[in-house]
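Our collaborator T.R. sent over the components below with a one-line note: 'Predict the complex.' Nothing else. No constraints on interfaces, no templates requested, no preferences about which chain binds where. So this is a plain run: every listed entity goes in together, and whatever single assembly comes back becomes the starting point for the next discussion.
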Amino acid sequence: MAALAVHGLTKRFGQVTAVDDLSFDVQPGTITGFLGPNGAGKTTTLRVLLGLVHPTAGTGLVEGVPYRQLDRPAFRVGAALEATGFHPGRSARNHLRILAHPNGISSRRVDEVLAEVDLTGVARRRVGGFSLGMRQRLLLAGALLGDPPILVLDEPTNGLDPAGVHWLRRLLRERVDRGGTVLVSSHLLAELALSADAVVIVKNGRLLAQGSVEEVIGRPGSAVRVRTPQAAELQQRLTAQGVVAELAASDEVVAYHVTTHQVGEAVAAAGLVVDELQAERHNLEDAFLALTESDRSRS
Amino acid sequence: MTALVRTELLKLLWTRATWGFLTAALLLVVGRVVLLLGGVGRVGGPAPGSADLTLAVLGCSGLGIFMIVLLGVVSVTREFHSGTWTSTLLVTPDRRRLIVAKVLAASVTGGAISALLLAVAAVAGLASGDVVFNLDASLVRFVVGALAAGACWAWLGVGVGVLVRNQTVALLLPVTWLLIAETLLASFGLRELLPWTPGGATRAVSGEDFPGGLPVWAALSLLVGYATALTLAGARRLVRADIS
Amino acid sequence: MGAPMSVLPGLVRTEALKLSTTRFPVALVGAASALTVVLALQPVLRAGRDGNPSVGTVGATLGVVDAMSRGALAALLLGIVVVTTEFRHQTVTTALLSCPSRTAFLTAKAITVAAAGLGLGLLALVLVSLVGTVSGAIRWRLVNGDIVLHTLGLLLTYPLYALLGLAAGTLLRRSQPLAVILPAVWVLGLESLAAAAVPTTVAAWSIGGTTAALQNAGAVPGVLPIWLGAGALAGYSLLLLLAGLLRLNRSDLT
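Returned assembly:
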């Protein structure tokens, strides 16, 4: 059974259709990236999954049931959403205690979680004085309170410094390796490409692509870029060998479906001078932009 | 400074709260006038066509003071409440000028609302046929006083807002003061203090004759004094505060 | 429906925790207490002069006890603030994620503010009793059934007003200034203004009218009997709360 599932979800706010017949699954044991341009309906979809927003049509299910029917949801799903707030006059620790209390989670667990997000030092300080990064970590702490197998995160790296981003990546990977599931909505494609197993791409409330990262990226990354003053000659040589190679610039050749070794051999055989020789992976960002741009030209 | 004041006026115009307060003030005043006119000619009620009635009808506009002072408060606390202080201060780093602009904008608005309320009351009075307007010194004094009072109370509101930045508390303070504290003074036998309170001074400004009432110019200066004191105290804090 | 209700005790304790971790409730209690004491001192200071009842009379006793009435506004305010701050600071989202039943959420708040209101009322009662006893204004031997009933009515005003405030706050949640001012100004003066325009029989059913009914044990003509006043006030709160709950259940928290 899918950890999280959206079936035929449609949500209209007055005249605006935020989500339009969206369906996708998040399998357990994966980190799934939820991507899309601004206004694509990502936040709305997440909020439907979490029972905060009522769908106009369709469903959002957590382990097969709507969020509101979950018994003690804090132990099944942990969520850290954007723009969810804190009372500025309350301390971080008290904020977590208030979240923990209705579910019978002890203060000891609260302290554990604070340590996990490295906020122990400021636990008794008013949240009003926290930086963005600290608030984000507190948000994550709240999601981790019940040690839930499923995590739903909306832009979790917002405000985190590089160490923080690295820490989060490791944390998510650890949880998934233990059998957990993560759905993370993010704009940081490079980061997601590093950590995600699968992606769901939406635009204008509709599904654009869904699958593993490799599937979505498409062409297996195997291009080689060479910067050489003798670019034209190299391009001819490679083409003669049956390699798809194009002249990207007057001093640059891009060869496809070859390894750097093969290109290096061709360069050595011709005795060419090389300024730079690099394997180029098509990345998630390119694929994403291509998908979302083409949709724009179509619509 | 003109541009600043215009900006502040625009801000006031575009805030829904302003129109809410105006509507509330209109409702209050119209309600009171209707009640008053309903009692005309009856036993114990005011006599039709009398100067007393004229002043009483116009005096109903005084109910608007509640809303005007709250408007003044909101014009300041709204910025704290919604976090727009940061962007406002980036545009206008000189906080003193900003406060002065807010005071001016609020005062102008307060005076304008008072004028509107007076006009509405007058129209209602005329429509009833019982009210007669003789353009004499006491009427002129009353109208001028009411306009000045409107401006001053808006200023007082700004002063409270600058001093007490928490919107909830800042809104409750003038309401509590006017409705509870001042009446308490009377019952505590501190009647002599009444003319010196903001409420008492306002009544004197409108030319109302009551024991111990100050002359109009003195009462007006007193109101201005209160407003200035509040604003200065708040300004000192605000100018030195860190906006994070 | 069984499952949400079973989490109620935990939710109520959480609400109490919320109240204890911010400064506003403390400030409110302080302000209300100060006001009550000041109002209680009033008849004491005026005693024996200008025709005011002297210390130790029924009149003075009633005068001191009546000081409790204004403090109910603090309970009203508490009810309002308890719910509007959740919306203002967006903590309602995390609260509902933790426990999705919006009915239980509001019910827990209702129970908590009613209890807090009652607590405020009891505190006010203690304060006026102290002021009255120390000053000699209250002659305990003169306290009869009527006065007890009257005091009970005054005490009950507190939790009822707290519920009323909660209901108002739930409906007016989007605009915190409005949610704070409107009930306060309504109760303080607007309503009496509106009530003057309608016949007394209708006015008796207004909030002010039912409060008077609750507090005067039917001793004043044109005022409803005490139980009717209490029932009406509770009824208004419940109706408004229900409306607020319906709205909350249907709304999207974006």
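Summary for T.R.: Chain B touches chain C at residues 17, 20, 28, 31-32, 34-35, 66, 70, 74, 81, 167-169, 171-172, 175, 179-180, 184, 187-189 (CB under 8 Å).
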